[in-house]
Design a protein that fits this description.
This protein has two helices and six strands, in the order βαβββαββ. By secondary structure, it is an alpha+beta fold.
C-alpha cells in the first residue's frame, strides 16, 4: 500500500556519495560510519540513503545519510562529507517492505514510479530508503519519493 503526505525529517545529518555493487552496501555504510567515528562523531543509530542511479545498474550510486549526536560539524574536505543541521523532505509518497528486502526493493521502486504516473504527479526527489525497527525489534524498510 502506498501512502501520501509522508516526510523524512532528521537533525544533524552527515551525508556522503558512494558507488558500490548493490550487495556491498554494508561496506559503504561501514566505511561512512568509520569516517565519522574517526573524526569523533557519534551516530544516533539511524541510517538512510537515496538511490541516485537506475536500480538496475550494475554499480549503484547512492547518497548515504547518518544523523549524528553532535550539533557542530567540521571534517576535512578530502573526506567529501556534507552536513545539514536539519534535513527535511515533505510531500512524499511511501510504502513499506517487511521481508525479503533484496527481492522486493526492485518491485517497490517501480511501484512508486507507476503510482506517480497513474496519479499525474511529478517526481521531485530520488528514491529514499530508510531502515527502521518496530518496538518488538522487527526490521522493516520504508521506501519513499518526493512528489508534486
Amino acid at each position: 500500500m502506498i501512502v501520501e503526505n509522508h516526510q523524512i525529517a532528521y537533525r544533524n545529518v552527515a551525508s556522503k556519495y558512494y558507488n558500490f555493487l548493490p550487495e556491498e552496501i554494508d561496506l559503504a555504510i561501514q566505511d561512512f560510519d568509520a569516517i565519522l567515528s574517526e573524526h569523533g562523531y557519534n551516530s544516533v543509530g539511524k541510517m538512510f540513503f537515496s538511490i541516485m542511479s537506475n536500480p538496475t545498474a550494475e554499480v549503484m550510486t547512492a547518497k548515504l545519510f547518518i544523523p549524528i549526536e553532535e550539533n557542530d560539524f567540521t571534517i576535512p574536505k578530502e573526506e567529501e562529507v556534507d552536513f545539514s543541521s536539519y534535513f527535511l523532505i515533505d510531500r512524499m509518497i511511501m510504502t513499506r517492505l517487511t521481508d525479503d528486502f533484496d527481492a522486493q526493493s526492485q518491485v517497490t521502486f517501480w511501484e512508486l514510479l507507476t503510482y506517480i504516473e497513474e496519479h499525474e504527479m511529478s517526481r521531485k526527489t530520488p528514491i529514499f530508503v530508510e531502515f527502521k525497527e518496530t518496538n518488538a525489534g522487527q526490521t522493516y524498510v520504508e521506501m519513499s519519493v518526493g512528489v508534486q
